[in-house]
Write a structure and sequence with these properties.
The chain contains 18 helices and 20 strands. It is α+β, with helices and mostly antiparallel strands. It has a 20-stranded antiparallel sheet, with helices on both faces. The longest helix is centred in the first third of the chain and has 28 residues.
Length: 564
């Protein structure tokens, strides 16, 4: 009886081993690839004493969305801008970014570490390695570059390579846990190695995972930034700026530094930027210092009434659907108080002084006559209109605000009416009733109504620019702004309730600007800027106060999907 040939057991075992090994290699490759994009894995290589860190990840899904949204003109401009940067970064070498770097690079984390000299912090870059073979090829090509000296040493069992270029610039490189570490200072590399091996990295700080990751849960993140200690960060920036040459083009302006330094009630910041099928998402979380901070440090006004701060949005049913820009917030009196308590001779204190002087010229006291009674919700909107006095401009405006002190508000309006009535050229101040609303109008004898104001409710007043807008404000709009599809798409993407928000219908604003402003060659936009703006549908921004020591700002940039 002939013997049936069966596959060798050894062959079957060999095939099984090869198959399992292949699966293991694929799993390891995928795990390495995932780690290269992991912000948490990157923070495991950064000392917990880090002052600030920023993580940039080339998220494939996010990049696909960017491709869908960008116009051909925007893509051309972006590539033309990026090419010189790539060439400059690799100038003097035979390396190519697209060939030698891009294939193996994952997420990139840049961190500021304390240095031995307070005025010279250490900067370190951590790059995730998603393809070890291509990374090895890059290292081989780098080592073959002429005029590049290389010295290799060890620190706690980790190899550190020092590279020195022909112009004496030097940097240090090490590979640690599937990540490439690069720093100008060897001390920064040593700090990273020490914190990793002793498990005292940034990732081990209590709550860092929730703060750095959970607090800014944006879809498909592209950038995540973290300032662990805002006062220390500003101190480092200020000292480094003072040390830099006066003529440095990268040196921040002194007023900007002064304003940022004044925000002493900020303890830490976390920022996330991502993108999904609707557009860009940005979230900023600020942790505030304890309330027992020194009284000499002005507190951010949002901190004052955390628990009692009411939500905004009650005025939307009074705004017409033609509103193309809107700012809605609460408590102008608090913001004014914050400005007036700024340190002497600071930019904010100077701004408050200029406002006081301007109001004094028309006999108004800034504290009592203007800002003191603005204690409710306030909405400031731009309304599209081509009728009447607004025909040459195509845009009117309206201010709607609540107040608990109607008597003081009416006294201020009466003072304004007297000032306008005595102006030159003459402007007539007239009263009339529109749909049951008593309205005071400022009329130009030839053009008609310029401004008007009145009371829509016992505690709700309006001031409008342009006769058509004045008339529109005296009736319930049909439909109101909150039923506008574009406004709904923006507002529904933001958290509610909130304590203030901004809305811009960029498409309509750009259409208005093109017809009324940009037609002038003096203020014409560059084609690349116009192309980028044409990619945007609208913008929304909101502020919320979920906890007494925490404030959040979210922004949604609605983008138009481009036809290919």
């Amino acid at each position: 009886m002939p013997r049936t040939n069966h596959p060798s057991k050894r062959l079957i075992a060999a095939i099984a081993i090869i198959g399992l090994s292949s699966l293991a290699l694929i799993a390891h490759w995928q795990q390495t690839k995932n780690r290269s994009y992991s912000i948490l894995d990157s923070t495991r290589l950064i000392p917990k004493t880090a002052i600030a860190a920023a993580f940039i990840v080339p998220n494939p899904t996010a990049l696909n969305y960017l491709e869908d949204f960008s116009t051909p003109e925007a893509r051309t401009w972006f590539n033309q801008t990026l090419i010189p940067l790539k060439q400059q970064a690799l100038a003097g070498t035979s390396l190519s970014y697209d060939r030698d770097l891009k294939p193996w690079m994952g997420g990139v984390l840049v961190a500021i570490l304390p240095g031995s000299n307070p005025t010279t912090p250490n900067l370190i870059m951590v790059i995730g390695i998603k393809d070890k073979l291509r990374a090895w090829n890059f290292a081989r090509r780098l080592n073959q570059q002429p005029d590049l000296n290389r010295q290799v040493s060890q620190y706690q069992g980790i190899k550190i390579t020092q590279y020195q270029e022909s112009d004496h610039k030097q940097y240090h490189v090490a590979v640690l846990q599937d990540h490439l570490l690069i720093a100008a200072s060897r001390q920064a590399i040593e700090q990273a190695i020490e914190s990793t091996q002793s498990q005292t990295s940034l990732a081990t700080v209590e709550g860092i995972s929730e703060q750095f990751l959970g607090s800014v849960a944006v879809p498909n993140p592209l950038i995540t930034a973290y300032i662990a200690n805002y006062p220390q960060f500003m101190d480092v920036i200020t000292k480094a700026t003072e040390k830099s040459p006066e003529k440095s083009t990268e040196k921040p302006s002194q007023p900007t530094l002064q304003i940022l330094t004044q925000l002493q009630s900020l303890q830490s910041l976390i920022l996330g930027i991502g993108i999904d099928s609707a557009g860009f998402r940005l979230k900023l979380v600020t942790h505030l210092a304890p309330r027992n901070a020194p009284e000499s440090s002005p507190q951010i006004p949002l901190q004052a009434n955390q628990g009692s701060q009411p939500a905004v949005g009650r005025l939307l049913d009074r705004l017409p659907t033609e509103t193309i820009a809107l700012v809605d917030l609460q408590g102008i009196d608090q913001i004014w108080s914050y400005l007036t308590t700024s340190p002497p001779h600071s930019p904010l204190e100077n701004l408050a002084g200029q406002v006081r002087q301007a109001l004094k010229t028309i006999n108004l006291d800034a504290d009592q006559d203007v800002f003191g009674w603005m204690d409710g919700e306030l909405a400031l909107g731009a309304v599209a209109s081509e009728e009447g006095v607004l025909a040459p401009l195509g845009l009117g405006g309206v201010l709607v605000l609540e107040t608990s002190d109607r008597t003081q508000a009416e006294d201020t309006l009466d003072k304004l009416d007297r000032v306008i009535g005595e102006s030159s050229p003459p402007v007539n101040v007239e009263q009339r009733t529109l749909r049951g609303v008593e309205v005071t109008e400022w009329k130009d004898p030839r053009q008609g109504t310029l401004f008007g104001h009145g009371w829509l409710d016992e505690d709700l007043m309006f001031i409008a620019f342009g006769g058509p807008v004045v008339e529109a404000m005296t009736m319930i709009p049909e439909p109101p702004l909150q039923e506008n599809p574009e406004f709904q798409a923006i507002s529904q993407a933001l958290p509610y309730p909130n304590q203030g928000y901004l809305y811009l219908d960029v498409e309509d604003l750009l259409s208005w600007a093109t017809g009324y402003l940009l037609a002038s060659p003096a203020i014409a936009l560059q084609p690349n800027v116009l192309s980028l703006l044409n990619s945007v549908q609208g913008v929304g921004l909101s502020t919320t106060l979920p906890e007494p020591d925490r404030a959040e700002i979210e922004m949604f940039l609605s983008l138009k999907e481009q036809k290919q």
